[in-house]
User: Fold MFS transporter from Mesorhizobium temperatum.
Amino acid sequence: MLPLIALFIAAFAFGTTEFVIAGVLPQVADGLGVSIPTAGYLVSGYAGGIAIGGPLLTLATKTISRKALLVGLAAAFTIGQAACALAPDFASMLLLRIAVAVAHGAYFGVAMVVAVGLVRQDQRGMAVALILSGLTVSNVIGVPAGTAIGNIWGWRATFWVMCALGVVSIAAMTVLLPRKTGSSRQSVSFGSEVRVLARQQVWTSLILMLMLMIGQFGLFTYITPTLLEITGLDESLVPWVLLLNGVGATIGVFLGGRLADWKLMPSLITMLFMQAVTLAVIHAVSPYPVPMVVAITVWGGLSFAIGTPIQTRILTWTADASNLASSLIPAGFNVGIALAASLGAAMLNAGYGYRSLPVVGAIAMLVAVAVALASHVWEWRRNTTPPLPAAAE
Assistant:
């Protein structure tokens, strides 16, 4: 359990630095002498670094000891936070954020593989859940705390605190991770890495991931104006609603881990359908504050409960050549986030309004149900079993 806690601390650090920029964006824009929309590229640039640089760095480092690589990525994070705190202008800040994002993308891919290798097969879902919870807890605790620090002592102080957190994560992994954590002693060829992506369980899971992001971020990107304009909430109440959503997400991560270890595909299919229903409910109750808040809390819980078995399934079915596939998990999520936000913008620009966003999400979830059912039936009929890890062969 202690090695997983060490991996969680670094996941929490990476998650916080990705999302906290939104909380201090006006201060960063003012401090670097750019407009707030221009400063917004610090968000999209980070997502691009994860999506593109993460898989490339993972493949380039596949022969390095996993422990050494994870500690090195945490060190890159730590140095990057100090450099961001000292950044003299916007261009350097953007480049530094992208560099940290590349380490972020590689870290989550490698950490997921190491985490499932540290536990029994029937504990894989909870191992994935613990790493993934670093992102949800960063939203519940890290982002509000980092934003408060920025408001009190300035945005550069936020990055210095992130730097200190990076030092803690380096120490934790150095002490707590076993020396042999599934290091790539048995090199797997690039061709093998690519071939495992052709397994239907892998590419269908990536489709499910994309649908999940449309169901989540198509609405979440515009959740604040939806709550203000459609639900009629006071602006001061919006952070509390987002906090409830984050609490629901944190609970959902661990619930999803339990269900992934119990009956992965039946649980996943059921939760996808429940999410479709939840999004339809959000559309129906969006003008009514109390039911809307309840629905948003459930929606946040289901989103992350669904994410855990999807990632567990990808890792299970690529165990014999996991480097590329595992790095595609954070990349896929960030590509999905970008596409969902763009789709939401297109819907709004076409004049459909905020209430159309959960409808689109519900349709995406129903598509996901159909894909998951087809995949599960195909797998059941052929009685296929997951591959053994490369090191065990």
